[in-house]
Recover the amino acids of this structure.
């Protein structure tokens, strides 16, 4: 009989004996593999925390006790054990379960999180709320070792460690975040044992042991093993105890004989405690263990082989952007690339292959990445910061304060601009037009296709000031490519189609749907001009005003928030010029967009060719009726009084 099918809440889990847990964990891994291979998702991290999740839910009294999952993309087992098993097949689907924790979804989900590094701060906020309210329950935060590079994690540990409040942090150490971990914290132990003193001691000891006949080589192996044990048993505790935490571990996060009693003891301890747990990313599925980077967040795949279920028919916008960056870097040695634990995700691994000494992965530290780039720019370099739109939000102050105020030549390659599908609310790139276009000195660009993208990469890198280019998630359009990227005139759009009835002013991935909508309108006798704005800032006011003066109404289209975005910029331009005509802004509404396939979401929010066509036709039709009514009123008003009565 299946154990998992009989678990509808943690109360059911508590009825099992610990001897049954390995079998339960096998069933959980089977369920996760079955669903993720079908719909895609975060596989490797979830396979690595199965035992840890079971142990936490077994020993804690949730939802009274609180578990905060940092990032929360590793909470699939948590969902399966908290009443969502029957809905688990809907994971990351439109209208289904979120791929992250979501308070609106379950009382067991204590905090919505899609960005790493938020967990400790949020959990310690719950600790202080508990104290303020005079309540008695446990608060546990599970944080990955990759998030230790996030400044917020260290800020939260610093705050919590300075108190004597009961608080448990579980450090899930799998030596990875999304990419391999980098930086001082991940190298802390190795550095300690590679200093001059230890290096000399190791070499002299080795020379001595090698002189001992027969057993010397074997003794050397034992000495190396002892060194590794010392690293794990002594030094991590020193680091966290200096931050004010009692340290326990490291322990095997897959061995219930170690995990359960240790965790049970930790739950009884007073004050801030950090439990260090060692896990294996992808455990239970060999392909994920062999390639945890790809299986961090993977599309649907063939379970037997681990290969994608569908092969992309064309290169992605991401790969095309990096191809262009590589071409630019070949001709300019000042160009360097910077990313924040997203080398593979942003495609910069291709840049790294050609320029291994000109790429910097700073770990999950977006704020540092931007100010680091600013520092390089002051010394004559041309840094390019590649981040997802949703992660650039984390470095907003650094963009404003450290880059733009000094007018430094830092280029921001903004990947995943617009709708990003199944990752949903926390990951849609809805806000970059709005939060960048009002920053002085900043250039804000978005290409209509991959050929224009390569030219915009060249344009932004060549610009002597801060510039950004945003591009969508997904495959490119397959348009013909120019051999080499060239510089476009900053702030100049292009008129793709002339028209006398309506103007459609579009930017980025909405341009070609706008063209299709215009073609359909033409079949119905409505003449639609189409402007590819190219730049949200500086806006091509001259082209837009010239086009607007020849039409009866104007529609803007963007795959970003309507409030304060590209459409707002166009309306401001019309207002300042005193141009009065009927207008409509198409974009994303003032709420957080749900998860779902890109095509479905674009259809839902009117950003397809059909949606643009319908909006334009409705606006134009209303304008024609209003104009006819105004002309009739004017005509009636001009008639003599007697004739008016006679009529």
């Amino acid at each position: 009989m299946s154990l998992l099918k009989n678990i509808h809440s943690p109360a059911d889990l508590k009825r099992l004996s610990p001897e049954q847990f390995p079998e339960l964990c096998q069933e959980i891994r089977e369920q996760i593999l079955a669903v993720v291979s079908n719909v895609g998702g975060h596989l490797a991290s979830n396979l690595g925390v199965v035992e840890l999740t079971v142990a936490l839910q077994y020993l804690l009294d949730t939802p009274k006790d609180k578990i905060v999952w940092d990032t929360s993309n590793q909470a699939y087992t948590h969902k399966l054990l908290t009443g969502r098993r029957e809905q688990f097949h809907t994971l990351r689907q439109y209208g289904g379960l979120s791929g992250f924790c979501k308070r609106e979804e379950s009382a067991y989900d204590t905090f919505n999180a899609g960005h790493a590094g938020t967990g400790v701060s949020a959990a310690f906020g719950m600790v202080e709320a508990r104290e303020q309210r005079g309540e008695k329950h446990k608060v546990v935060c599970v944080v990955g070792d990759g998030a230790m590079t996030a400044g917020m994690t260290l800020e939260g540990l610093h705050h919590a460690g300075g108190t004597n409040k009961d608080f448990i942090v579980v450090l899930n150490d799998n030596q990875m975040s999304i990419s391999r971990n980098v930086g001082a914290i991940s190298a802390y132990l190795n550095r300690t044992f590679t200093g001059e003193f230890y290096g000399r001691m190791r070499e002299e000891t080795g020379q001595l042991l090698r002189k001992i006949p027969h057993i010397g080589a074997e003794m050397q192996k034992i000495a190396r093993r002892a060194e590794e044990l010392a690293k794990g048993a002594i030094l991590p505790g020193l680091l966290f105890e200096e931050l004010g935490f009692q340290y326990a571990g490291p322990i095997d996060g897959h061995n219930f004989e170690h995990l359960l009693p240790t965790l049970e003891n930790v739950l009884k301890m007073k004050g801030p405690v950090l439990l260090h747990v060692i896990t294996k990313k992808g455990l239970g599925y060999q392909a994920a263990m062999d390639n945890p980077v790809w299986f961090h967040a993977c599309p649907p795949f063939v379970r037997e082989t681990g290969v994608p279920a569908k092969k992309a028919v064309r290169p992605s916008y991401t790969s095309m952007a990096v191809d262009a960056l590589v071409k630019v870097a070949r001709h300019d040695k000042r160009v360097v690339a910077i990313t924040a634990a997203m080398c593979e995700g942003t495609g910069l691994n291709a840049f790294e292959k050609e320029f291994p000494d000109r790429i910097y992965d700073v770990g999950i530290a977006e704020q540092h990445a931007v100010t680091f780039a600013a520092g390089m720019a002051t010394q004559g370099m041309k840094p390019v910061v590649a981040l997802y739109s949703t992660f650039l939000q984390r470095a907003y102050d650094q963009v404003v304060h450290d880059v733009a105020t000094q007018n430094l030549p830092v280029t921001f390659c903004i990947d995943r601009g617009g709708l990003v599908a199944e990752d949903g609310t926390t990951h849609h790139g809805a806000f970059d037009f709005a939060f960048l276009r009002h920053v002085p000195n900043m250039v804000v660009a978005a290409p209509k296709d991959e050929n224009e993208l390569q030219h915009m990469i060249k344009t932004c890198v060549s610009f002597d000031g801060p510039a950004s280019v945003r591009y969508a998630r997904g495959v490119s359009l397959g348009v013909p490519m120019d051999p080499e990227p060239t510089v476009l005139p900053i702030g100049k759009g292009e008129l793709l189609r002339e028209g006398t009835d309506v103007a459609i002013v579009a930017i980025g991935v909405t341009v070609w749907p706008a063209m299709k909508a215009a073609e359909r309108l033409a079949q119905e006798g409505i003449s639609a001009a189409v402007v590819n704005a190219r730049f949200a800032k500086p806006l091509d006011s001259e082209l837009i005003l010239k086009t607007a003066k020849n039409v009866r109404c104007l529609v803007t289209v963007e795959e970003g928030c309507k409030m304060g975005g590209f459409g707002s910029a166009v309306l401001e331009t019309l207002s300042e010029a005193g141009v009065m005509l009927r207008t409509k802004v198409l974009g994303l509404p003032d709420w957080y967009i749900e998860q779902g396939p890109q095509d479905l979401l674009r259809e839902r929010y009117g950003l397809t060719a059909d949606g643009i066509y319908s909006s334009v036709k409705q606006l134009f039709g209303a304008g024609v009726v209003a104009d006819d009514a105004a002309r009739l009123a004017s005509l009636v008003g001009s008639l003599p009084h007697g004739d008016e009565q006679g009529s």
Summary: DSSP finds 26 helices and 17 strands in the chain. Residues 609-638 form the longest helix (30 residues).
